[in-house]
Amino acid sequence: MALSNESEVTRGDVLLTGASGLVGSALGPYLAENGYGIRVLTRDRAAAGGKAVFWDPADDEIDAAGLEGLAGVVHLAGENIASGKWTRAKKERIRESRVRGTGLLARTIAGLERKPAVLVSASGVNYYGDRGEASVAEDEPAGEGFLAGVCRDWEAATEPAHAAGVRVVCLRTGPVLSPDGGMLKKMLPPFRAGAGGRVGSGRQYLSWIALEDLVGVIRFCLEVESVRGPVNAVAPNPVTNATFTRVLARVLSRPAVIPVPAIGLRLVFGEMADEMLLSGIRAVPGKLNDAGYRFLYPDLEAALRRVLER
């Protein structure tokens, strides 16, 4: 990973939300190893104090004093979008956990006497909706669909911090490659059993990123002042679903000849199948490339071999 001479954030404390999730559990130790102090948000009043700051987004409660004097904030918290079928209640939790929590955090930051220099807030490439084979950079408008709407409102919720002079970065991430969670963890058992294969037509694009690169990208966004606004946090070489399954099978030395039909996915997952499994987003990391970030794993096979070797 390359860092610039225009580093803005000193090695003070960074507030991390979603610290126990797939990305947060890797990011916290990584930032600590690179000289940052880590504070976390907790909903447990008894656990609050010291480096743990209380908040309860559902009741619009947060200990603002615990946010004073931060070097930066990395906001990753949100309901898992891929756990279970999207019922009406599930969709409401997905939206509320992102939009309401982000709004509370941004408004609180805006009212601080000693504001952080930067807020890095999660979003997703689902912002663009299904774009087929077209490449999409950060200047593309929001697409159609439930997740596109969630991402649009999620990013808009950071506006109070931006209006107060805080540099805001909205990370539009794609699927994160790690055997410990996310898409890859779910794919590994059938592929290791030789029962993997393309999903639907296999022509839909997948804008992936290795976990090791994503934590590097987050640090880069904390430290490089020119990086702001929406940022596609994806590797520079997106691939189709058919290519992804073929490469994964090769890395695992297994066949991948059992396709998963679209109709079956729709029967099992409903709306989620169309938005997450059968649609394609070919996002490119335009701003990261322009700012000089050097990906550790720009190519899929090397990335998969690295994460599975671990």
Task: Give the topology, please.
Elements: E1 13-17, H1 22-33, E2 37-42, E3 52-56, E4 61-62, E5 72-75, H2 88-110, E6 118-124, E7 135-136, H3 146-156, H4 159-163, E8 167-173, E9 176-177, H5 182-192, E10 205-206, E11 209-210, H6 211-223, E12 229-233, E13 239-240, H7 241-252, H8 262-269, H9 271-277, E14 282-283, H10 286-291, H11 300-309
Parallel strand pairs: 1-2, 1-5, 2-3, 5-6, 6-8, 7-14, 8-12, 9-11
Antiparallel strand pairs: 3-4, 10-13
CATH architecture: 3-Layer(aba) Sandwich
The H-level CATH homologous superfamily, spelled out, is: NAD(P)-binding Rossmann-like Domain
Overall strand count: 14
Percent helix, as a range, is 25-40%
Question: Per CATH, what is the topology?
Answer: Rossmann fold
The SSE string, one letter per element, is: EHEEEEHEEHHEEHEEHEEHHHEHH
Multimer state: single chain
Structural class based on helices, strands and sheet pairing: alpha/beta
pLDDT under 50 segments (min length 5)? none
Distance between the termini: 19 Å
Strand count, sense and closure of the main sheet? 8 strands, mixed
- Give the CATH level 1 class: Alpha Beta
Whole-number total of structural domains: 1
Shape: globular
CA radius of gyration? 19 Å
The whole-number mean of residue pLDDT values reads 92
